[in-house]
Amino acid sequence: DKGNHRHFMVKEIHEQPEVVGRTLGHYLDLVASAAKAVDDIDFSRIDRLSITACGTAYYAGFVAKYWFERIARLPVDIDIASEFRYREQPLSKDGLSIVISQSGETADTLASLRYAKGQGQRIAAIVNVRESTIAREADVMLPILAGPEIGVASTKAFTAQLAVLAAVAIAAGRARGTIDAAEEALLVRSFSEVPRLMHEALRLEGQIEALARDLAKVKHCLYLGRGTSYPIALEGALKLKEISYIHAEGYAAGELKHGPIALIDEEMPVVVIAPYDRVFEKTVSNMQEVAARGGRIILITDRKGSEAAAIDAVETLILPEMPAAVTPLVYAIPVQLLAYHTAVFMGTDVDQPRNLAKSVTVE
Ligand code: M6R
């Protein structure tokens, strides 16, 4: 049931404050400002993490790489499942494999799970469908509790996956002694603000719709981000191409001058995801390179970022200021809405885009 919404996708986008609140409440003790321990995983004995997934689930894992490395000082290899399964890489017995899948049936992700298991690794699966094959074959199953996701383009499953991964990274940091109780409390309190911040992000919808009207006229679009905003740029580009069929690429902002800058002209919109964090200045200098070549910029940032950016000819979406750790969950929303409204203007079949299946059970 779509309720008052025109498509399942936009309904699911709007469900995110509630869904993520529920998921965080399941994995974090908000009263004690602590992460709940993850049953059956002793992070103090793990020396390396391999995160494997496809598509949007892979981008959730990519964000988590930054969290695990920073919060738990745990090295993370992040892989696309179709590559992981055939690469025959050596895996440490003291390593943990995390596979992420909304459906729990993705063929390549399942094959990766079986490969890692064969190498003697323990497997934690982050899934939405609890009765799925991946859930069954994993040693530890961590449900994302997003409820059924109908839109082929994944939205609420993505942010719910991020919520689980963030909570697990905090629990890992505590188990490994890389964060103290005060730092843990600060992180948990930051994440507990996410549902409220997501509500604020949803209020940008009218402004995003106006931007989408123009975006629907372009052939190509570039997304840039740095740090955890880099996987959000990748996710933004994936969303746009999936449902609007506009060619979009996500790039690490620092890679711009290593090639993609050649594409910039007055026709090329560039979506820059840049909260005012410790890499903001670097991203802005990349944005200036775009502006100097006449590129059209859509900047997604906060008040401080928009003041510090000081570039004309920028369309700016302003989110509330928030701790750096939580930005991926909140910045996902404008990026999803931009893709959604662009697709609506294009008149595509948003919930059932051409050539795509909700669950990819063949490789
Ligand atoms: O069910 P899974 O999470 O394993 O699916 C992985 C991808 O197929 C999926 O995320 C796909 O990229 C979506 N269409 C993204 O919107």
Structure report:
- The chain has helices at residues 8-14, 16-27, 55-71, 81-87, 107-118, 133-137, 156-176, 181-192, 194-202, 205-215, 229-244, 280-292, 303-309, 327-346, and strands spanning 28-29, 34-35, 48-53, 76-80, 95-101, 122-127, 140-143, 220-225, 247-252, 269-273, 296-302, 314-319.
- By secondary structure, the chain is of the alpha/beta class.
- It is globular, with a radius of gyration of 20 Å.
- 5-amino-5-deoxy-1-O-phosphono-D-mannitol is lined by residues 54-57, 101-103, 106, 109, 152-154, 242, 356, 359-360.
- GO terms for molecular function: carbohydrate derivative binding; glutamine-fructose-6-phosphate transaminase (isomerizing) activity.
- It catalyses: D-fructose 6-phosphate + L-glutamine = D-glucosamine 6-phosphate + L-glutamate.
- Its main location: cytoplasm.
- Catalyzes the first step in hexosamine metabolism, converting fructose-6P into glucosamine-6P using glutamine as a nitrogen source.
SSE arrangement, N to C: HHEEEHEHEHEHEHHHHEHEEHEHEH
Q: What is the tally of beta strands?
A: 12
| Radius of gyration, whole Å | 20 Å
Shape assignment = globular
Main beta sheet: 5 strands, parallel
- As a percent range, the share of helical residues equals 40-55%
What portion of residues belong to β-strands?
15-25%
Heteromolecules bound = 5-amino-5-deoxy-1-O-phosphono-D-mannitol
Number of alpha- plus pi-helical segments: 14
Low-confidence runs (pLDDT<50, min 5 residues)?
none
Q: What gap, in angstroms, lies between the N and C termini? A: 31 Å
Quickly give the structural class. alpha/beta
Strand order of the largest sheet: 4-3-5-6-7
Q: Give the mean pLDDT.
A: 95
Function: Catalyzes the first step in hexosamine metabolism, converting fructose-6P into glucosamine-6P using glutamine as a nitrogen source.
EC number: 2.6.1.16
Active site: 358 (for fru-6p isomerization activity)
Subunit structure: Homodimer.
